[in-house]
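Limitations

Structures in this collection are predictions, not experimental determinations, and the ligand pose is part of the prediction. Treat each record accordingly. The example that follows, with heme C as the small molecule, is included so readers can see exactly what is and is not provided: the inputs are given verbatim, and the output is the predicted complex.
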Amino acid sequence: MNTKRFISMSVIILFCCGANLFAVKQNTTIKNKVPVDSIKTGNELYMKNCASCHKLIDPAKYTKVQWPDFVNKMQKRAKITDAQKALIISYLATEAKK
Ligand code: HEC
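Predicted complex:
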């Protein structure tokens, strides 16, 4: 395989996998006693509501103690309900920095 071909293939692979970077891993069961459905919904809400102004922030950037403060601050901006906020926090907490 020549270099040019290798580079274009790498770009394609990166492009395809990049979108799923923050998607919940398939085999996640129950983490931190939060049902997997809530985590999945929280993950979807996070991807839908938190990427319009800035790029999605890696959940591992902050601890689960820090995340609620950020999401509280962003709630008005993202126009999400308290219930949606709680789901987003439950997702972020499971993937947060340890
Ligand atoms: C309407 C635009 C908007 C939306 C929607 C939004 N943000 Fe933000 N966010 C900002 C701006 C502007 C800043 C930087 C200034 C500040 O901190 O006030 C920021 C900063 C942040 C930061 C801190 C900076 C960093 O890079 O670590 C976090 C964490 C964050 N946002 C999380 C979220 C989450 C979670 C959501 C979804 C609930 C969200 N944001 C939705 C505008 C937005």
